[in-house]
Design a protein that fits this description.
Blueprint (H helix, E strand, L loop, with lengths): L2 H12 L9 H26 L11 H7 L8 H12 L8 H7 L7 E6 L2 E6 L5 H11 L9 E4 L3
Parallel strand pairs: 2-3
Antiparallel strand pairs: 1-2
Length: 155
């Protein structure tokens, strides 16, 4: 039932209002209903998009800014995968094994090994120096504090 139908039905039930087409009350209700329909449409969109991983066509920009997601895959699907990966990080992922999961944030594949107490990430993608630097700085947020991280790009 539309907002207009709901309001007009309630007013007609009182017997005090003429809600027939062309009346002043009809025109007033139509203007209210138009505004309310827009409002409730926006509320419904927010309700649909509140769970990012199941949202339809959600714009990841808000999530990327809120979580400082550093993403090099600019496609809509790549950006969405990055946000979902970021949202799935738990306190158990702050390990060498967890770092591999964290690579999903950047949409890059690679192996993660612990060597001499440090973490080495061998990326299967070719990354520029600026990308390597950005990932290295960003991934430090997730690394165990006493570990040095080295990221090696594919040639």
């Amino acid at each position: 039932m539309s907002e207009f139908e709901m309001m007009s039905e309630r007013l007609e039930q009182t017997g005090l209002y003429d809600v027939s087409e062309g009346s002043g009350v009809y025109a007033e209700l139509m203007s209210y209903a138009t505004g309310l329909d827009l409002f409730f449409d926006e509320i419904e969109k927010i309700r649909r998009d509140i769970f990012f991983d199941i949202s339809e066509g959600s714009e990841p920009g808000i999530y990327e800014r809120l979580m400082s997601v550093c993403n090099f895959d600019k496609s809509a699907e790549g950006r969405k995968r990055s946000v979902i990966s970021t949202l799935s990080i738990t306190n158990r992922d702050f390990t060498a094994d967890g770092i591999k999961k964290i690579l999903g944030i950047y949409n890059i594949d690679g192996g993660v090994v612990e060597q001499d107490g440090n973490i080495i990430i061998n990326c299967t993608s070719k990354l520029s120096e600026s990308e390597l630097k950005a990932i290295n700085e960003d991934i430090q947020r997730f690394a165990p504090i006493c570990k040095k991280i080295e990221i090696i790009s594919a040639e």
